[in-house]
Model the fold of this input.
Amino acid sequence: MTWYAHVMELSKRVSALQGSATLEVNARIRALKAQGVDVIGFGAGEPDFDTPEHIKQAAINALLAGQTRYAPVPGERSAREAIARKLREENNINCNADDIVISVGGKHSLYLALQCLIDPPQTGRPAPQVILPTPAWVSYMPMIQLAGGEALQVPGAVENDFKITPQQLEQAISPRTVAVILNSPSNPCGTMYSPDDLRKLAAVLEAHPHVTIITDEIYEKLIYGDAEHLSMGSIDSIADRVITINGLSKAYAMTGWRIGYACAPGDGGVVAKAMGKLQSQMTSNITSFLYPAIEEALANGADSVKMMHTAFTKRAALIHERIDAMPNVVCPKPTGAFYVFPDISAYFGRTSPGGASIDSAVSFATALLNETSVAVVPGEDFGDCGRNHVRLSFACSEQHIEQGCERMDAWLRECS
Ligand code: PMP
Ligand code: GLU
Done:
């Protein structure tokens, strides 16, 4: 008998891929909790609320009624109609059901959109570019790279609430640019662009018709103070080139359900059709008895959204007050989403109370977790300009915020 040494070689694409830092922190929190450690997790961003009962019931009813078969790939028509109605009425986006593709979370919608827009570089040619204002959510860059593109990072300054300026956008655009990804309210920054800021960015984009605008508006319902949200897809001069991404995870506390959608009405719906085609070879439709839950959430979820929003508003103020009081930590006030992204670089070059050298956000977060059981996400994977930061999600109780910040504050004061 001949024995073969069998080695399963991974593709270069996947070997080089960075796994999700946010989900990794969550996995670590889960493992520590299972060992009985009293961890305070400010890790992955997911509401601590349960999905509202009436939304659950809609899925249960559909399941019991036998809505268990394959559905149209982009989603049941009535659910797509409900989404299109929401986008027309709340976001002023001119669209209909044919422009909507429902996918396995907003993450999947973004993945599909990027795969449909980007070609891997031809030999000897530079890779197509996607402009990415940073700090940016950890998954955009890997998704751009998996499609064969290159992310061109455009850093937003802390003093400007991490926003990029129209001049920066203008300078970044070149014939290589395929798309720009905007995300307001922002993960990880917790800040947002004003309608006026977005109109100015749109004015720059007007002059560059080869650039598609992907706008991730998944945190649109989580806005604090008098900040206002504007959908890029409502700006007539660029609407034809806008792909709006959204989903139910954050606004309705439905992270585990995996429901996201894209709206791409431009150019006769060419991108929406392409995304549907790709999805038909990938996952087909989402779980079929979830479609009535989408309709229920959009039609009758406003009260639950409001209740959660009230809680998040209080938490935003509380966590900002606590972090602002920490020595040598700089943190813009959160105006949207449920994150703060403080600059902790004043601690680089110092030693933690437990004797660890702190020289990066990763070593800071590791020492903080090891020594206080407080979990935060290090900033490195949010882009080069995230290196001086850590991210804290405040999608957790006020008591949790108080306790975690107290531990972190005491720990910082003992760093030497
Ligand atoms: N966009 C941003 C900015 C996010 O933070 C998330 C959270 N994971 C998503 C998209 C995707 O969320 P989901 O896949 O749960 O819809
Ligand atoms: N978007 C959330 C976060 O950034 C959930 C985890 C993920 O998908 O990245 O924490």
User: Anything to note?
Assistant: The mean pLDDT is 95. Residues 45, 105-107, 137, 183, 187, 216, 218, 247, 249, 255, 260 surround 4'-deoxy-4'-aminopyridoxal-5'-phosphate (ligand 1) (CB under 6 Å). The chain has two domains: 12-50+303-414, 58-300. The longest strand covers residues 177-183.
